[in-house]
Structure formats: C-alpha cells, structure tokens
Fold each of these.
Amino acid sequence: MRGRRILLIVGGGIAAYKSAELIRLIRKAGGEVTCVLTRSGAQFVTEMTLAALSENKVYTNLFDLKDEVEMGHIQLSRQADLVVVCPATADLLAKMSAGIADDLATTLLLATDKKVLAAPAMNVRMWQHPATLRNVARLRGDGVILLEPDEGEMACGEYGPGRLPEPPAIFAAIEQALAGSKAGAADTRLAGKHVIVTAGPTQEPIDPVRVIANRSSGKQGFAIAEALAALGARVTLVAGPVGLATPAGVDRVDVETAREMQKAVDTALPADAAVLVAAVADWRVEPNKAKLKKAGGPPDLAWSANPDILAELAASPRRPALLVGFAAETENLLAAAQEKRTRKQCDWIVANDVSGDVMGGDDNEVHLVSSAGVETFPRAAKRDIARRLADRIADELA
Ligand code: CTP
C-alpha cells in the first residue's frame, strides 16, 4: 500500500461516513488518497472531513478542475493506481453500467484507464432489483471489481444484503486489487459462457397441503451461482423452494418439483456447463386432489420414479461440454461418488459428506472427483468452496 494512490469517489448514502474510516486505514498503511465527493455524497459527509483525513484537496464537481491545464479530469482519473467507489449507490452503479458521465465522479469513471473497485451500499430491495442485478452483472463483465454487500439490519430498518462492507474488508479488497492478485484482478475468465446451476431441494406434493421434501438449504448451489457470475459467466439458477436471496447478476428460475426443475433446465439450454447441486427427490406420488383426512388412516401412496435430470442431460444431444454433479453421501463417500460419476456419465462429481452439520450449515468440505482423480477442498465457508469450484470450471472451459 505504501506510496500507492487511491482515487476515492464518495457516493451518497448513510454509509458515506464509513469512507472516512477507509481513508484513515489507507493513510495509516502509507497510501495516498484523493477524494471526489458527489453532490449526494456531500449530504452525508463534508468536504472538510475528507480533506482533513486525506490531507489532500477534495474535488466536488466538474468545474472545480479550473482548466484542463492544472488538473484535467482525465489526468485526475489516471494518476491513481486504483479508483475506489465507496459507497457505490444504485444510481452510481446504473450510471457506470450505462457509461453516463454527467458529473465529475461519473466522468472520471468513464475516463479512467485504471482498475475500478466498487463497494455497494443500498436498500435491500434496490440491491435485489432486476435493474441493479443487471447493472452489477454488466459491470463485472466490464472488469469492475464489485464487492458483495454485507447482510444485516439496514439503516432503513429492513433486513438483508445491501449494507456497505466494513472498512477493514474494503481495505483488504483494495490491497488485493493493488497486488493484482487473482481475486482482485477482475477475473472475467467466464465472460461469454453460459452456466446452468440447480440448487436447493425439490418438493413433491402429496395433497394440496403436504409435500415430500428434504433438508437441502440451497446455500452451496447459490454460492456456486454467485461465484460463477463473479467470473463473468451468464448464470441460470434453477432453484427449488428456498429462502435465499438471488445472487447479484444471476438469472433465477424458481421451481418446486423434479419435473419442473428438469423442464427449466431444458429451457435454459444450450449451456457451456451445468452444475447440478440440487437435492432432487428421487420419487414422487400422484397427489391427491383434496387434503387427505386423518380419519382415512395412513394413506397408501403410489410412488413413481422422478426423471434423473443429471443422467438424462448427460445422455442428451444438447449435453453441455462440462457436466458437474454432486453426491451427498453419509457413507462410503468416495466410492459412491466414483460410482455415481460412471453411472450418470457426468464429467465431475463433487462429493460431500452430509452425515454432520453440512446440510443447512455455512461450511462444507468436498472432494472433486474427475477422470484425473480426487482433489479435496478442505473444510471452508460454502462461498469459498464455491469460488474454488468456479475457478476450476473457468480453467476447464478456457
Ligand atoms: N440428480 C438429478 N436428478 C435426480 C436425482 C439426482 O439431477 N432425480 C442429480 C443431483 O442434482 C446430483 C446428482 O444427481 O448432482 C446426485 O444426486 P443424488 O441424490 O446423490 O443421486 P441419486 O441418483 O439419488 O443416488 P442415490 O440415491 O443412489 O444416492
């Protein structure tokens, strides 16, 4: 960080005050900060605060830059090592994504030839709005490093993702970006690729109120969809009934039954890869039209087999080039995974032991079983496991 120059664009929002802490962290580590305060940012933090903390002139609008001789906007945007937008509002993201340059901040963002890192902060509904999701996906495709917002209670009283990450986390991402490491260097290896991901359980109705379900939370599949989108892929996420937010930049199709899931996967084809994480019910019953009554005694359910989405996709002429299945097992993990890989004719099986607290939990340990052998991803957060898998997929599709 020592001697590195950060151009910090402070957008409008309650979280703008956290940019002061970010400046302090950068300065403490020996970095230099030049701030650009947007008009709405100035409603939340003063020019004086930013100037005092950065010990630098703060730029506030296009006409500040007296003339192109002293410090033109092109020069200002290019003399930095990294451009950081914090907080990045929905409005700023939209303008960045559309290439609008109607004030100093957006003009700099359009004129810069440097890496841009944006830390979004906004109301949860704004973050999850299809327009924002679209903008986020497009910006990631353009190579912008977009941090995931934190989840929690928001200043407006609502709960969910949208909070600005804490300044130390943003600082760490800045360091990573400056170091040009893989994670920070806007890795878009999957740009132009389409990946289908299935996630969550399926539910098979018994009658209008009862279903056959399973304990899958969908967390691992959603994290994989998120990690693939972060590498620039177009992702179709076919989700069973789960209570999870749609990851940024992902197209989501909600389904209930195995047959609906298969149809949604089919509709989403063609794809370069498919990662079938869903815990699909193997059997279904013919649902009773009316609610079964207790007085009728234990029902006699007539079971039939559900389609095997993975095996049928593997045998289909529209088979994606890379087909990845999951094997959730409680015993003989690797042997069962190997057997499943052969039986279902997929390229890779990601095997995980679900005898412990994996289902519904936030951590996982998996083994990637392929023709090359077995690679273990040691116990880590599901999002980290997802990133490793996405990285392997990107290598494979390269
Ligand atoms: N799968 C699928 N359609 C099904 C069943 C499973 O697409 N009807 C997929 C899962 O998404 C997963 C893989 O197949 O990627 C393995 O799922 P699993 O439930 O472990 O396989 P089963 O065939 O049910 O094997 P078993 O019951 O013998 O463990």
Note: Residues 11 and 87 are 5 Å apart (CA to CA).
Amino acid sequence: MAGKDVMPVGVFTSIGAGLGAGIEAVKEMGVPTVQVHAPPPELRTEEHAESVKKQFAEAGIQITLVFCGFPGESYESIPIVRDTVGLVPEDTRDERIEQAREIADFAAALGAPGIGIHIGFVPEQTDSPQFAEIVGVLKGLCEYCKALELAVHLETGQETADALLALLQQVGRDNLGVNFDPANMILYGSGEPIEALRKVGHLVKSVHCKDATWAAKPGEEWGAEVPLGQGDVGMDSFLRTLAEIGYDGPLTIEREIPEDPERQKAEIGQGVQLLNDLKAKIL
Ligand code: MG
C-alpha cells in the first residue's frame, strides 16, 4: 500500500526499567515504532525525556505509548495479579494515581501521544460502589491526561469484553481507549480474543501482538505465553480482524524474556518478520 504505513510494526521496549529489548536492539530490528515502559521515578525528569526523545528521533523511531508500571506489582499468578496490579488495589491506589500522573507528565515531555495502563481486576458488578470508585479514578486520570493532550489506553486482559465496554461507557471520556492484547484474553481466560476484538473494536487505539495457549483451567491458572504465531490467537485472523474494524495504528510486539535477552531478541525478530509477511498478504 502506498502512502501512510498502515499498521506500522513496533516493539514494546524499555528506557530504563530493565525490561524489553532496549533501543540498540530495536534499531537493529528496523521497526518504525515503539511503546516504552515508563522509566523508574528517578529517571522521570525533563532532561531524561529530552535525551530519550532525541535518541529515538535520530533513529527515526516513533514512540507511540508510554506504559505505566508500579513498584509492588507482580504477575506471578492470577490471584497475585488481582491483589497487586494497577489502580484497583486500595492500599496502593492513591500513591499510584500520583505516579501515573508523573508518568503522564513524562510522556508529554517525550512528545508521546498517550499512556497505557493495566487498571487491574475491575469488580464484576457494574452497579457496585467498588466499580463506581474505579470509574471515578479513571475519570480523574483521563482529565489529567486531557490537559496534557494525552490519550489513556487501558490494557485488556483481566476482564471480559463486556465488562471493559461497561467500564469505558461509564467513564465516558473521549481520550480513553483500549490497548488490545489478544494473548491476555487467553492467558487470563477472559474470552475468545477475536470475538472480543470485534466487540470493543471501535475503542481499540493500540494493540499488543502477543501469543499464548489456553490453560487447562482458564481463569484459574495461567495459559502459556509463546512466540508470536505459535499460540491460539491466530495472528492471521487477528490482523484480518484489525483491518476489518478499520484499525490502522501500530502493531506492537510484546515479548519479554528477562532471563534470556538473546532468545528474546531472536523471537522478536521472528515476530517482526511474521507481521511484515502477514501485512503484505492481508493489507
Ligand atoms: Mg500486553
């Protein structure tokens, strides 16, 4: 397709948090976009933002999202995620809201268009006071980001497509969208990803290209994360469905193997190849 690079390939990387592939590896992969993990607090300065901005600009790589992460979060098991991840756990909520705002300031200084966040396990009962509290938290964050001209993308995974729709509808802010991660739907056992994508498609502003296989007991135990194209997502139908719903944003590969950076780099490289091949076939 001539003109605009529709669905440019990207990698989820790090600018100081110790995760992801790192800018040197990203340069080697030749991708035009990245999402980045928010750096730790001591690196969320204007100076650091300026230097990161310059590095990526010189490499011709666009930063499409800055992802929030908070100390104390653990993805060890589904119950531990429930207790530790995002803005849902009450003990850490206020301090994390403050940190999310700092990350938004950093994203704005970086010239990124938005922040991404795992909100956590949102209560199932949409008429409960707990649900209303999360709606309030998100409204506040969206308003803060709006003033900085930033979008807020909620990562999918812990909830069903219907629950996510209910949440976004109640928050009702036009800078709130979805970062759709099809593998999370499988890993958490929260629904068939392509069907979910069709339901929330109009709200999808960014995606993670990640693959996984279903657990024997979905929702109780983790599925397994596997290299792109080797799991149950069906990358061909994922891309076809994205095209069908009119999505033209980046395809950001998320593959983190902190214990084996070489394998990580090789698998991301294979993922880039797979996505480019599928794009050539489908778009
Ligand atoms: Mg993800």
Note: The chain has one domain: 9-282.
